[in-house]
Design a protein that fits this description.
This protein is an alpha/beta fold and 294 residues long. It has 13 helices and nine strands. The strands form two sheets. A six-stranded parallel β-sheet has the order 3-2-1-4-5-6, sandwiched between helices. The protein has a three-stranded mixed β-sheet with strand order 7-8-9. It is globular. The N and C termini lie far apart (59 Å).
């Protein structure tokens, strides 16, 4: 019985770039893993990993004490919770949203689930697929402390850092700040790279040197490592969507995000041109698609 309490059954929905290695880590840490996917082929990624496959969300929910969601949008999360999960979850269960979304949606989810005795945590993760595979994600958590402590061993299976930031929505707020600062830093890097190219310096060599000094940042270290010419267009679009979420969240909180949003959007939309400039030696404003920087 003690082992059962320490390793409760965990459901997981959303076996994408980050979700699959997270779910794998949960199972390999000894938690009974239950999985469902809209596309059954997605479950093939768990081949060789101990888990129970389910044909529907209700069946999965009835078998689990904790259910993690790592899906694309708030709308997807709400649809899953109201479309069968909540109906089948036992009182005392916990729903965890690992995706990035609005703090207001986290509050709404908590309100929807409270009458059923189900707690909700917003626990978005930072680090991308490489960090998920190496089990060194940072998990930013909002919600009741008791639920956080209950889920902490699960989070620890795929995280290097688990930080509880406050009540419902605090994890999402922190993640949006994280994403905005990353994008803003990318805008700063693009301007420095343009100046360096104008002075006849090798931008790739310069960036390599800056990574070794006090100017180092995640924004620098991700260039030509996690952010590559193969995926930069996709990541640029994702970052722009994150900045839109950031702007909405701040305005819902009666804050003025104007300057931060503008700078972050410049970094997000200019990411492709920045990466091409590092690989071609042409200024970021002239590389890539030739458009002027936003």
């Amino acid at each position: 019985m003690d082992t059962d309490r320490e390793r409760p059954p965990v459901g997981f929905i959303g076996l994408g770039d980050q979700g699959l290695p997270m779910a794998t880590a949960i199972a390999e840490a000894g938690f009974p893993l239950h999985a469902w996917a809209r596309r059954p082929a997605s479950l093939d990624g768990l081949r060789g990993v101990p888990h129970v496959r389910h044909d529907g969300v209700r069946d999965l929910a009835a078998s689990c004490e904790i259910v993690g969601l790592c899906v694309s949008t708030d709308e997807d999360v709400l649809q899953l919770v109201t479309g069968g999960l909540l109906e089948a979850l036992h009182s005392g269960s916990v729903v965890v949203n690992h995706g990035t979304g609005l703090p207001s949606t986290a509050v709404r989810l908590a309100e929807i689930c409270a009458p059923a005795g189900v707690e909700v945590l917003d626990a978005p993760v930072s680090g991308g697929r490489p960090a998920a595979e190496e089990r060194r994600l940072t998990t930013l958590v909002g919600g009741p402390r008791t639920a956080v402590e209950r889920c902490r061993p699960v989070f620890a299976s795929f995280s290097r850092h688990v930080v509880h930031l406050g009540g419902a929505g605090a994890g999402q707020t922190a993640k949006l700040f994280n994403n905005a600062l990353l994008a803003m830093n990318q805008a700063n890097i693009a301007e420095i790279v343009d100046l360096a190219i104008g002075l006849g310096m090798d931008p790739a060599r310069l960036v390599g040197a800056l990574k070794l000094g006090s100017a180092s940042s995640a924004a620098l270290t991700l260039l030509n490592t996690m952010v590559t010419l193969d995926n930069v267009e996709h990541l640029s679009r994702v970052e722009a969507l994150d900045m839109e979420l950031f702007d909405t969240a701040m305005r819902e909180a009666d804050a003025d995000p104007g300057a931060v949003t503008e700078r972050g959007m410049a970094g997000a939309r200019g990411l492709s041109r920045l990466l091409h400039s590092l690989n071609s030696g042409e200024p970021a404003a002239a590389a890539g698609d030739g458009k002027e920087r936003s």
